[in-house]
Design goal:
By secondary structure, the chain is α/β, with parallel strands linked by helices. The protein is built from nine helices and five strands, in the order E-H-E-H-H-H-E-H-E-H-H-H-E-H.
Amino acid sequence: MYVMARIYVLTGMPGAGKEEFVKVALGRGYQVVRMGDVVRQEAAARGLVMSDREVGGFASAERQEHGPGIWAVRCVPLIKGRDTVIDGSRSTYELEVFRKELGGKMRLVAIHASPPERFLRLRRRNRSDAPRNEAEFRRRDEREMGWGLGDLIAQADLVIENEGTLAEFHRKVAEELDSPW
């Protein structure tokens, strides 16, 4: 008997805990498609500087040139019929692409954490695109909201709160991944 793959599309503000969801899913055999990696790979291939401003500007320019769902369109071919987590959807346009291409096989999950907690997490992970101060953090949030992230979060099939310990969050994610649809 053929079992359809389960596909989770993750959304949430930067630093909310999407990567921690991914870690739990990887431990359960899911493949992961990171939308941000697809953007960064394309930006690097074009010789752009790997800063938040450059990569974010490039992502926005691609949306303007090719349509607001372009990053979802570029991710769909990476799904290989296996249980998959697509990390980092940013807009309802991307959701439309995923729903059209994946149908009932997908579930939109929003990860939520407060702005102060997210800022601390972004600073601690020390990636090249981490905000250097609260003003940069606010600008990044505003840019993400400008892409329609708030509307997307509002359409989530499930919201997982990430304000407690890491172990508590991992337990919540494991319960979701182990639950029947």
